[in-house]
Specification:
The protein is an alpha/beta fold. It is 38% helix and 16% strand. The protein has an eight-stranded parallel β-sheet.
Amino acid sequence: MGIFDTHAHYDDEAFDADRDELLKEIHENGIERIVDIACSMETSRKMAAFISRYDFMYGTIGVHPDDIYELTNNSIDELKKLSKQEGIVAVGEIGLDYHYEDIDKELQKKWFAVQLDMAAELKLPISVHSRDAAADTLDVMKAENAKDCGGVMHCFGYGVEMAREFLNMGYYIGVGGVVTFKNGRKLKEVVAFAPLDRIVVETDCPYLAPVPFRGKRNDSGKLKLVIEEIAAIKNVPADMVYEATFNNAVKLYGTKDVYEGKY
């Protein structure tokens, strides 16, 4: 049964020691597709070459709110050019992060809006990072008509009412290891509320490994635990979640292969 990991960071140094070995064996764990997510200009520049090493991997271009100080108008022009490379399927991860006070909120909103406009121009979906910034994230997305390009709310961390807002805009909800945590009650409630055809699974690896691996390095093979938890919350067979989340990811990123029990 195929799994599509919609948000990973295999370019991270945490995988330097055994990356190729791990990814060569990934199919044995049922992983059929992975999207590796850029966070900075540097990772965006390297993305196409990185994903070209793995025939099951796609990539993105974009700058995380933590790295917005490196952005200029020239950077946006460069990102537009990088988006044309083979295997690039989205703009991300972009958004707002108010968890720490050291990054200017107004500047975050400015570059989030600019990258939303870029995604619309490129006709690419977006992967949205939003942490402790629910209202402003929604406001910027509405102001920039983000419903038109669509995408996924990565590592969704808000409650049901905010989930309803993003679902009404046509966005997918990204569900990862947090759904298995004892303190993951809000995400469990969102999973129970959201239609199965609006949920995708993700690792955010090397981060956020599911129980019983919490605190250790995450990888796509552990998504089985996430899928089983979603199935338990929604009281449906795990096979239904495997198929739905795979097909949802295909629709999200515009890749052509739909799961039909062949993988």
